Amino acid sequence: MKLYDLELSGNCYKVRLFAALTGQKLDIVPVDFLNGAHKRAPLIDLNPFGELPILQDGAVVLRDSQAILVYLARKLGDERWLPRDAAGEAAVAQWLSTSANNVQHGPADARLVDKFGYALDKAHALAQSSRILGLLEQHLAQHRWLTLGHPTIADVAVFPYVALSHEGGVSLDGYPQVRAWIGRVKALPGFVPMPGV
User: Fold this and answer.
1) How far apart are CA 150 and CA 73, in angstroms?
2) Among 76, 143, 155, 169, which is 20 to 30 Å from 116 by CA?
């Protein structure tokens, strides 16, 4: 399996992290993002959205880190990471949506502004960060993991941009349960870091 990757991308890191946690081998292909390699052939042919990550597994080509996590979990066949029963799968899926929406438009967008100079609404990103971190803090006060009582791809999906919050000027000082959860993720066998984490 080949992963077209950007080291500083939290979305790419989700894929690298899950592969490391589960012992799945990836051929990591660094992409010259600053020079727009993801917007030109051959990558634009693999992902017309012009975004990373891209996973290529033979004839299967996938974009979007959440979709890639689902694919890798199903390929692995270990239902602890993504159950097949309707309730369990939905419990994980709701957190994948949280990652792609609330976390992306909160801590991730704040990081894009501060670290990469994106022209996004920083005040909105900070407000969204406060909201999602408050909700995570409440949830994690009652649960060690995001769902099902053990690590799933939900934790892998939400983790990167929450752990990178400081790079967007978002402090985790007021969120002890979130910080404890970050510590639990980092303690998982096979955990690999990324710059900033």
Assistant:
1) 15
2) 155
Among 21, 43, 76, the domain boundary falls at 76
DSSP states of 38-107 as a string?
GGSTTHHHH-TT--S-EEEETTEEEESHHHHHHHHHHHHT-TTTS-SSHHHHHHHHHHHHHIIIIIIIII
Quote the pLDDT of residue 186. Answer: 98
pTM of the predicted model as reported, rounded to 2 decimal places: 0.96
Number of domains in the chain: 2
Same domain for 20 and 57? yes
For residue 57, being part of any structural domain is answered with yes
Q: Tell me, what's the pLDDT at 34? A: 85
| CATH label of the domain that carries residue 11 | 3.40.30.10
d(CA 41, CA 51): 13
> Residue 171 sits in which domain range?
86-186
pLDDT, residue 59, reads 97
Task: Give the Cα separation of 47 and 51 in Å (integer).
Answer: 7
Summary count for the chain: helices (H), strands (E): 8, 4
Q: Block means of pLDDT (10 residues each) for the chain, length 197 residues?
A: 98 98 98 92 96 97 98 96 98 98 98 96 98 98 98 98 98 98 98 97
In terms of domains, do 102 and 66 share one?
Answer: no
